[in-house]
Design brief:
Layout: E1 3-10, E2 15-20, E3 24-30, H1 31-38, E4 46-50, E5 55-58, E6 63-70, E7 82-87, H2 103-128
Antiparallel strand pairs: 1-6, 2-5, 2-7, 3-4, 3-6
């Protein structure tokens, strides 16, 4: 299997953004999991199949994280171009949800996003309604 990868020394809440030129699997994993991935052993990751770019991942804890972009399968390789970068923490940016994520994961992310939007909208209204004087 062929893949592209880039390591990042990142802190909690920083964002790794990956731009891809076509639908492919984008995985975010620790250095230990990358080693297992390369050896064909069991590993864990965040991410999955993404059809749209950019893909954003909010770092859950400090460490060395790797952005891995798969270049198809062994029998059907494809040319993929990707660009990665690390962004500063931003409360408005959420992690992208993979197309192949389990339904309960997708629903949880949608519910959390709508709750956060409602809370932010409520705080904007309360700030706007204050007056001095």
């Amino acid at each position: 299997m062929k893949f592209l990868f880039r390591p990042f020394e990142a802190k909690r809440k920083e964002i790794i953004e990956v731009e891809i030129d076509q639908p492919t699997k984008v995985k975010f994993m620790t250095a230990r999991d990358l080693k297992a991935y390369r050896q064909g052993k069991t590993y864990s990751f965040h991410g999955g199949l993404f059809e749209e770019s950019p893909v954003r991942f909010v770092i859950p804890y400090d460490g060395i994280w790797n952005a891995v972009v798969e270049k198809g399968t062994y029998h059907q390789p494809m040319e993929v171009k990707a660009h990665c970068r690390r962004l500063s923490p931003n409360g408005l940016v959420r992690s992208s949800i993979a197309v192949d994520a389990p339904p309960e994961v997708r629903q949880f992310a949608l519910d959390r996003a709508s709750a956060e939007d409602a809370a932010q909208h409520a705080s904007e209204i309360s700030l706007a309604s204050r007056s001095e004087g």
